Amino acid sequence: MKKENVNILHTEWSQGWGGQEIRILSESIALKNKGYSLHIACQPDSPLFKQAAAAGIPAIPLRLRKGLTFASVFNTMRIIKKFNINLVHTHSSVDAWKCGIAAKLLGLPVVRSRHISTPVSTSPLTYFAYMKLANCVISSGKEIKRALVQRNKMNPEKIISIPAGVDITRFYPRAASKTLQQEFGITSSDYVVGIIAVLRGWKGHQYLIQAIKKLVDQGLSIKLIIAGAGPQEKNIRTLIKAEKLDQHVILAGHRQDVPECISVMDVVVLPSVCSEATSQVLPQAMAMKKPVIATDVGGLPEVVIHKKTGLLIPPKDETAICNALSTFYNNTDLAKKMAEQGYEYCMKNFTFEQMVNSTEAVYIKLLPGTIEN
Fold first, then answer.
1. In the list 133, 245, 354, 356, which could disulfide-bond 30, CB 3.0-4.6 Å?
2. 373 in a domain, yes or no?
């Protein structure tokens, strides 16, 4: 069978738009460009549905709700039959169950992705969903696989670690965007700190803002760019106002021009408190030769090797963030050295091409004799 006749269905229950959904779409586009036929079944009012359609990936409306409802199973089965699907790739708990069952009833292979490091339940049902419904589990990093094997006693041979990869055709070293410097009001004397993340509580924005407050009180000419949108926006705005940081913190909202945003940053910080896999943003920053600071949670230590590719700090600690930022601010040679080492490490381990090829290899293994190279 030629690649264009191999139909792959991604399913996603989430209504959000973050690293998980971005990865689903970017991988779908890449595999479509390699000749496969890709489809995404997701909530019709979700950002993923709109973004997939805009990118030329068939977006199939599939209303998924929590709870034991078989309508979603039957609807998925109809989709599978209509589009002659050969393999189903699930991504969240709800679609993993319902769409996984639909695929199994029709005798199709199932791939299950685990994108975040939050521990999964040790219940027999969870084990069944990962080890019986799915033929293979893709974890977004080695730490997630380790937890599934050690904590949940899952079969390591059925789990493969494929970290998020960075598209080096978009993220590469470049001069700072003058357009964005003007938009954000950045001057030559400003030290620019950046965070690119969905505005959710576990991303740790509040601790970064408190660290910026400490540095401002020390007299530093510093600006913080917060790129992203999400449910914590109101709380973040309130905190910025309470700390009188309106002149120092820029809420840039959701951005399509992420590479340009990174270009104006002197350092990129990800102060997450939990749930992180290997991150998409950190490798992107490293590919642009920016020094990075991250918390020692989830899979982030797989990307940030302390004092080599960046600085690792404990979570929920604004003083640690402040000290790490001060280290880079006061030692530009050290920051440049870590940025260079981070770039080299990223090129060896976290490219988009590696991620896509590894995912394709999983599909080929599950469809033996089907795909012609």
1. 356
2. no
Indicate whether 54 and 161 sit together in one domain.
yes
Bridge partners, residue 66, by sequence: none
The number of helix segments (H) and strand segments (E) in the chain equals 15, 13
Mean pLDDT, rounded, for 289-309: 95
How many whole angstroms separate alpha carbon 116 and alpha carbon 145? 11
User: Residue 325 sits in which domain range?
Assistant: 178-349
Tokens 């050969």 belong to which residue?
A: 86
Is residue 372 situated within a structural domain? no
First vs last C-alpha separation in the chain: 9
The whole-number pLDDT of residue 371 equals 63
Average pLDDT over residues 187-197: 97
- Asked if residue 372 has pLDDT above 80, the reply is no
Two tokens, residue 15: 């209504």
Q: Indicate the burial class of 132 (C-beta count within 10 angstroms; 0-12, 13-18, 19 or more).
A: exposed
Q: pLDDT tens-digit profile of 96-120? A: 999 999 999 999 999 999 998 888 9
Provide the 8-state DSSP code for 121. P
pLDDT score at 370: 64
Contacts of 158 (CB under 8 A, 6+ apart): 131, 134, 135, 136, 137
pTM of the model: 0.83
